C-alpha cells in the first residue's frame, strides 16, 4: 500500500516526535490585527475614494463659503454702477478706464448680475446660506428625532404606540405642500413677533424665510430620524449591558444618554449627513418658488432661480450656481453613502 | 383584509383632517384679510366682501362652514379669479397635471427598474458605473435646474422641442423628462441594491440548485423580491411628482394644477389655496392608501389584518 | 484508471476564493469517493471546507471562488470541465441540495406549490395536472398533511420543520442519484431535528439514492451514516466507516470532536472537553498539520510538515504524525528484536 512507504525515507529522526512547546504552537497562529469598530470604519472610509473626493469638495465648499469672503474685495450686496450684466472676466467701460489709468481692478471671474453685483461673492454667499440651511436643519432634525425616537423606543408600550401613531400621521402629511403653506403664512406672524420682541434680534438676523425653513424642518422632517432611532433603541435595550445598568441603579435618562445613544451614533451620523442635502434641495425648491431667502441675501437655489428668467442671454448666471448646488448636494450624498458603507457591518462580510 | 383596510382608511381620514386644520389655521394666521393687499379698496367694501365670504364669523365656525361645503363637493369660490369656483379651476387644471404626472411615473418606474437590474447584474463593470453616475446626478440636480438646462439646450439652442405648453406630443418630452429624472434615478438605486440583496439570498441558491436557468432566476426569483422596495417608494414618488409639477409647470408654462397652486399662493387666494391643498393632500393620501393595500398582492408575507 | 464503479469520485480537489486579501484555500486537496446508495457524513467545523467541497459538484461555488485543481467525477460527468448549461441539467435532476436554514431557503413570494412544481417543470415533461399530482404525492411522502391546501400556501405560513420537509420534497422531486444535505437540521428544534433525520433515512431507503450529510455535529451522523469523513482546514484528516471513526479514531482532531459530544447512555459523569483555540487562517495555511496549534499531543514535526495518509484498514485512513510515530516505534521495536 502506498501510504505504508518506509517512514525512514522521509528522513525523520526521533527528535521530531518530541512534544512541541506552547510557544512554538503559538507562532503558527497568525493574529489578525485587532481593530475597533471606529478604527475599522475610519479605515474603510479613508479607503473609499469616492467618499474622500466628496469630502474634499465639502471642505472646499466650506472654505469657499466661510473663509474666502473676508479676503474678497467685493461685497455680496455691493452694486457696482455701470457694471451690470458683465460676462465672466469682462470689465465695464468705467473699470477699463480705471485700469488704463493704472489702477488695479479686481476681475469679475464669473461676471456680474443685473444689479452689477459680482457673481463670485454672490456665489460664496449663496453657498454659505445653503450650507447653513443644510447643517442647521439637519441638526434640528437630529435633535428632535433622536429625543422623540429614544423616548418612544425606550419606554415602549402605550407611550410608543401613541408616539408612533403621531409619527405615522405626520409622515403621511405631504411635506412640500405643508412647507409651502408654512412659508407663505409664517412670514407675517414671524415679522410681527420680531418687531414685538427685539430680544429675538439674532433670529431676525437670519431672516424670516430662513427661520420658517428651520421651523418647517423641525415640524416635519424629524419623523424618519425618530423611526430609525426608535428601532435602534428597541433592539439595544434588550441587551445585557442595559440590564446591567438598570441593576446598578442608573436612571432612565442616564441609560438613554450614556448607554443607548452612543450605541446608535453611527446611524445618527449617517442619517444626519444625508439630511443635509435634502434640506439644501428643499431650500432650493422654495427659492425657485420665490419663498426662499430674500434679496440681497442669496442661496444657491435663489441665485439659480433668479437666473432662469434671463438664461437665454445670460447663461453664465445660471451655470455657476446650478453647478455649485448640484456639486454640493452630490458631495453630501456621496459622503453620506460612504459613511453608511463604512459603518455597515454587512459590507464587512462581503469584503 | 377588510379590517386592515378600514384601519388604513381611518388613518387616511385622520391625516386629511389634520391637513385641513393645519391649512385653515395657517391661512388665518396672516394678519388682515385677503383684500388688504389691495390698498385702495375702501374699508366698507372690504367689510362687505368679508361678510359675503363669511370671513367675519369666528374661526371655528368658518372652518365648519368650509368643511361642510367641502363634504358636499363645493370647494368654494376663488377670491381673485372672479366668477370661477375652486372646483372649476381644479378640475380644469388637474387632468393636465395628471396626464403629465402619470406619464412621468410610468417612465420613471419602467426605466428605473430596468436600469437598476442592468446595474446590479453588471456590478462593478462599465454599465453599472455609468448608470450609477447618471442616477447619482439624478438625485443631486434640482428639478428646476434640470428643466432650465433642458430648455436651454433642446428648446432654445437646438430648437428641437417646444418650450411652452402641451400642444403636441413632442411638447411632453421635456416636462416628463424633468419630472421623471429624480424618481427614475431613485428607483434605479433602489432596484440595484434590492437586486443585489435578492441575488445574495438563500432562496436564489435553492433555485440555482434546482437547475433554474439564468433568465428565470432573474426575472422570476430575484426581480419579484427586488421590486418590493420600489413599490414602497411609489407613495413618496406620487407626492414628489405632485410637488415637482409646481416647478415643471411653471418653467414650461403648462396650465396644470401645479402652476395654479403657485399662482394662488402668490395671490393669497384663500379658498383656492385651501381647496387646492386639500385636494392635493387627499390625492396623495389616497394614492398612498392604494399603494399600501396593493402591496399585499406582491408580497404575501404582509398580512393585512 | 478508474472504472465507473463509484457514483462520485473526487480526486485532489482544490477550491480557492480569490479575495482582495489574497487566495483563501477553502478546499486544499480533498480526495474521496461515494458509492451508489451510500450515506457519507462529512464532519468539520465552520470554515473547514466541507460545504464548499460538496457545492463544487453542483457548480454552486460562486465568484470569487473557483476550482484550481483536481478532478470531480459524478455519475459519469466530468464536473470540473462542465459548462454552466450542462450543470443546469444535472442540478435538481441527478443531484439535489437541502440547505441549513429552511426559513430563508424558500422564496417568500411564491407558493409552495409553485416552487415544488418548478422542479418538475424544469426536468420532466409532465403537464400541469401531472405536476400537481406529483407535488401532492411528494408532500404526502415527506409527511405534510393536507397537501392540496398546503400547496397554495406561502413559505411564511409553514413552520421551520415543515419548510424543511418541503425542501426535502423539492429535492426528491426528480429522484436524484445524490442528495446533499448541508446541515439540514442545525436550524431546527431538537425534537424536529430527530424527525427530519428519521424522514431522510426513511426516504433514502424508499428511493435508494446516495446521501451526503454535511454537519459540524458528529452526534447527528452516528446513526445515519455508513462512512464518515472528518475535515479540517480544507483537508480531510480522517475517513472511515462510522464504527471506525467512533471506536478507533486515529486523528487527534477526531478524538477531540468525539470528546466534545455528550453521550446519553454514559453513566459516569465525564466532563465534555471542548477543543481549545480557533481554526487556522486559510489565507496563510501553515506548512505542517493545520490542527497542530490546537493539538494537545502536538510534536515538533507537526508544525513543520504535513503528515501523509496512513491506511489503517481497507476503509479507514488518517493523516496524523502520531500514527507515523506509532508505526515508527513498531518498526524500531521489530528492528530491536532482531
From TrEMBL, chain A:
It is a multi-pass membrane protein. Pfam families: BPD_transp_1 (PF00528), OppC_N (PF12911). Residues 127-336 form the ABC transmembrane type-1 domain. Keywords: Cell membrane, Membrane, Peptide transport, Protein transport, Transmembrane, Transmembrane helix, Transport. One of its GO terms (biological process) is protein transport. The keyword Transport applies. PROSITE patterns: ABC_TM1. GO terms for cellular component: plasma membrane. It is found in: Cell membrane. The chain crosses the membrane at residues 50-72, 129-150, 202-222, 284-304, 316-336. The keyword S-adenosyl-L-methionine does not apply. Belongs to the binding-protein-dependent transport system permease family. OppBC subfamily. PANTHER family: OLIGOPEPTIDE TRANSPORT SYSTEM PERMEASE PROTEIN AMID, OLIGOPEPTIDE TRANSPORT SYSTEM PERMEASE PROTEIN APPC. This is ABC transporter permease. The lineage of its organism: Bacteria, Bacillati, Bacillota, Clostridia, Eubacteriales. The gene is oppC_1.
Automatic annotation (TrEMBL), chain B:
InterPro entries: BPD_transp_1_N, MetI-like, MetI-like_sf. GO terms for cellular component: plasma membrane. The lineage of its organism: Bacteria, Bacillati, Bacillota, Clostridia, Eubacteriales. GO terms for biological process: transmembrane transport. It comes from the Bacteria. The keyword Transport applies. Pfam families: BPD_transp_1, BPD_transp_1_N. Keywords: Cell membrane, Membrane, Transmembrane, Transmembrane helix, Transport. Residues 94-291 form the ABC transmembrane type-1 domain. It is a multi-pass membrane protein. The chain crosses the membrane at residues 12-30, 100-118, 130-154, 160-182, 226-252, 272-291. This is ABC transporter permease. Belongs to the binding-protein-dependent transport system permease family. It comes from Caproicibacter fermentans. It is found in: Cell membrane.
Automatic annotation (TrEMBL), chain C:
Residues 8-258 form the ABC transporter domain. GO terms for biological process: peptide transport. GO terms for molecular function: ATP binding; ATP hydrolysis activity. It is found in: Cell membrane. Coiled coil: none annotated. It is a peripheral membrane protein. Transmembrane segments: none annotated. Gene3D superfamilies: P-loop containing nucleotide triphosphate hydrolases. Its main location: membrane. It holds the Pfam family oligo_HPY. SMART domains: AAA. GO terms for cellular component: plasma membrane. Keywords: ATP-binding, Cell membrane, Membrane, Nucleotide-binding, Transport. Belongs to the ABC transporter superfamily. This is ABC transporter ATP-binding protein.
Amino acid at each position: 500500500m502506498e501510504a505504508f512507504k518506509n517512514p525512514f525515507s522521509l528522513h525523520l529522526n526521533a527528535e521530531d516526535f518530541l512534544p512541541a512547546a506552547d510557544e512554538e504552537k503559538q507562532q503558527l497562529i497568525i493574529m489578525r490585527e485587532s481593530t475597533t469598530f471606529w478604527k475599522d470604519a475610519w479605515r474603510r472610509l479613508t479607503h473609499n475614494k469616492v467618499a474622500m473626493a466628496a469630502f474634499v469638495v465639502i471642505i472646499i465648499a466650506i472654505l469657499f463659503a466661510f473663509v474666502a469672503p473676508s479676503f474678497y474685495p467685493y461685497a455680496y450686496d455691493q452694486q457696482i454702477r455701470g457694471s451690470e450684466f458683465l460676462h465672466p472676466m469682462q470689465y465695464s467701460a468705467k473699470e477699463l478706464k480705471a485700469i488704463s489709468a493704472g489702477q488695479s481692478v479686481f476681475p469679475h471671474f464669473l461676471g456680474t448680475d443685473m444689479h452689477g453685483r459680482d457673481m463670485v461673492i454672490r456665489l460664496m454667499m449663496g453657498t454659505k446660506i445653503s450650507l447653513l440651511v443644510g447643517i442647521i436643519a439637519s441638526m434640528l432634525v437630529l435633535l428632535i428625532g433622536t429625543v422623540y425616537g429614544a423616548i418612544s423606543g425606550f419606554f415602549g408600550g402605550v407611550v410608543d404606540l401613541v408616539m408612533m401613531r403621531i409619527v405615522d400621521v405626520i409622515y403621511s402629511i405631504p411635506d412640500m405642500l405643508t412647507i409651502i403653506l408654512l412659508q407663505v403664512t409664517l412670514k407675517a406672524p414671524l415679522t410681527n413677533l420680531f418687531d414685538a420682541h427685539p430680544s429675538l434680534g439674532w433670529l431676525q438676523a437670519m431672516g424670516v424665510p430662513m427661520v420658517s425653513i428651520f421651523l418647517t424642518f423641525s415640524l416635519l422632517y424629524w419623523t424618519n430620524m425618530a423611526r430609525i432611532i426608535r428601532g435602534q433603541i428597541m433592539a439595544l435595550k434588550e441587551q445585557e449591558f442595559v440590564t446591567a445598568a438598570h441593576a446598578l441603579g442608573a436612571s432612565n435618562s442616564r441609560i438613554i444618554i450614556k448607554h443607548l445613544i452612543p450605541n446608535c451614533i453611527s446611524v445618527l451620523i449617517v442619517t444626519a449627513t444625508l439630511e443635509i442635502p435634502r434640506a439644501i434641495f428643499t431650500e432650493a425648491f422654495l427659492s425657485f418658488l420665490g419663498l426662499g431667502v430674500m434679496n440681497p441675501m442669496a442661496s444657491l437655489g435663489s441665485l439659480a432661480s433668479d437666473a432662469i428668467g434671463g438664461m437665454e442671454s445670460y447663461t453664465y448666471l445660471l451655470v455657476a450656481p446650478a453647478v455649485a448646488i448640484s456639486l454640493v448636494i452630490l458631495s453630501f450624498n456621496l459622503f453620506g453613502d460612504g459613511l453608511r458603507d463604512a459603518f455597515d457591518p454587512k459590507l464587512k462580510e462581503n469584503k | 383584509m377588510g379590517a386592515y383596510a378600514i384601519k388604513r382608511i381611518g388613518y387616511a381620514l385622520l391625516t386629511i383632517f389634520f391637513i385641513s386644520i393645519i391649512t385653515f389655521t395657517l391661512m388665518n394666521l396672516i394678519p388682515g384679510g385677503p383684500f388688504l393687499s389691495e390698498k385702495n379698496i375702501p374699508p366698507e367694501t372690504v367689510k362687505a366682501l368679508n361678510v359675503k365670504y363669511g370671513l367675519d364669523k369666528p374661526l371655528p365656525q368658518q372652518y365648519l362652514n368650509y368643511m361642510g361645503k367641502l363634504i358636499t363637493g363645493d370647494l368654494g369660490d376663488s377670491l381673485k379669479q372672479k366668477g370661477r369656483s375652486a372646483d372649476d379651476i381644479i378640475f380644469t387644471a388637474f387632468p393636465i397635471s395628471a396626464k403629465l404626472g402619470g406619464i412621468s411615473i410610468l417612465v420613471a418606474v419602467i426605466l428605473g427598474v430596468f436600469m437598476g437590474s442592468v446595474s446590479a447584474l453588471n456590478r462593478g463593470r462599465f454599465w453599472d458605473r455609468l448608470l450609477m453616475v447618471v442616477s447619482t446626478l439624478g438625485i443631486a440636480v434640482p428639478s428646476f435646474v434640470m428643466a432650465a438646462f433642458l430648455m436651454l439646450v433642446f428648446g432654445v439652442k437646438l430648437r428641437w422641442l417646444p418650450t411652452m405648453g402641451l400642444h403636441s406630443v413632442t411638447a411632453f418630452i421635456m416636462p416628463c423628462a424633468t419630472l421623471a429624472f429624480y424618481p427614475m434615478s431613485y428607483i434605479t438605486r433602489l432596484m440595484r441594491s434590492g437586486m443585489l440583496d435578492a441575488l445574495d439570498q438563500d432562496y436564489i441558491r435553492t433555485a440555482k440548485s434546482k437547475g433554474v436557468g439564468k433568465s428565470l432566476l432573474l426575472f422570476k426569483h430575484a426581480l419579484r423580491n427586488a421590486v418590493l422596495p420600489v413599490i414602497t417608494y411609489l407613495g413618496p414618488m406620487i407626492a414628489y411628482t405632485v410637488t415637482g409639477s409646481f416647478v415643471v409647470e411653471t418653467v414650461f408654462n403648462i396650465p396644470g394644477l401645479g402652476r395654479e397652486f403657485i399662482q394662488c399662493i402668490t395671490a393669497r387666494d384663500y379658498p383656492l389655496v385651501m381647496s387646492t391643498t386639500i385636494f392635493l393632500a387627499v390625492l396623495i393620501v389616497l394614492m398612498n392608501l392604494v399603494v399600501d393595500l396593493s402591496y399585499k398582492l406582491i408580497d404575501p408575507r404582509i398580512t393585512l389584518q | 484508471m478508474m472504472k465507473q464503479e463509484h457514483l462520485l469520485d473526487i480526486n485532489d480537489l482544490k477550491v480557492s476564493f480569490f479575495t482582495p486579501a489574497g487566495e483563501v484555500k477553502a478546499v486544499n486537496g480533498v480526495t474521496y469517493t461515494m458509492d451508489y446508495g451510500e450515506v457519507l457524513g462529512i464532519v468539520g467545523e465552520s470554515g473547514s471546507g466541507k460545504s464548499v467541497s460538496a457545492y463544487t459538484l453542483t457548480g454552486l461555488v460562486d465568484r470569487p471562488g473557483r476550482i484550481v485543481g483536481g478532478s470531480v467525477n459524478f455519475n459519469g460527468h466530468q464536473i470540473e470541465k462542465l459548462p454552466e448549461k450542462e450543470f443546469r441539467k444535472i442540478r435538481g435532476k441527478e443531484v439535489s441540495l437541502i440547505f441549513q436554514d429552511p426559513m430563508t431557503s424558500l422564496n417568500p413570494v411564491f407558493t409552495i406549490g409553485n416552487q415544488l412544481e418548478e422542479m418538475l417543470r424544469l426536468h420532466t415533461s409532465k403537464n400541469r395536472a401531472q405536476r400537481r399530482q406529483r407535488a401532492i404525492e411528494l408532500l404526502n411522502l415527506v409527511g405534510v398533511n393536507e397537501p392540496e391546501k398546503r400547496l397554495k400556501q406561502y413559505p411564511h405560513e409553514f413552520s421551520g420543520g415543515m419548510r424543511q420537509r418541503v425542501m426535502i420534497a423539492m429535492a426528491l422531486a426528480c429522484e436524484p442519484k445524490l442528495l446533499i444535505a448541508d446541515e439540514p437540521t442545525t436550524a431546527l428544534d431538537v425534537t424536529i431535528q430527530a424527525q427530519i433525520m428519521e424522514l431522510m433515512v426513511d426516504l433514502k431507503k424508499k428511493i435508494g439514492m446516495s446521501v451526503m450529510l454535511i454537519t459540524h455535529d458528529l452526534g447527528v451522523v452516528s446513526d445515519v451514516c455508513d462512512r464518515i469523513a472528518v475535515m479540517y482546514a480544507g483537508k480531510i484528516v480522517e475517513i472511515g466507516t462510522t464504527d471506525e471513526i467512533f471506536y478507533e479514531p486515529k486523528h487527534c482532531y477526531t478524538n477531540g470532536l468525539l470528546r466534545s459530544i455528550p453521550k446519553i447512555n454514559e453513566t459516569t459523569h465525564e466532563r465534555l472537553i471542548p477543543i481549545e483555540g480557533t481554526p487556522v487562517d486559510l489565507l496563510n495555511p501553515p506548512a505542517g498539520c493545520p490542527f497542530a496549534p490546537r493539538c494537545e499531543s502536538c510534536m515538533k514535526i507537526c508544525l513543520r510538515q504535513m503528515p501523509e495518509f496512513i491506511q489503517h484498514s481497507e476503509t479507514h485512513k488518517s493523516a496524523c504524525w502520531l500514527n507515523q510515530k506509532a508505526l515508527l516505534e513498531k518498526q524500531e521495536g521489530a528492528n530491536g528484536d532482531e
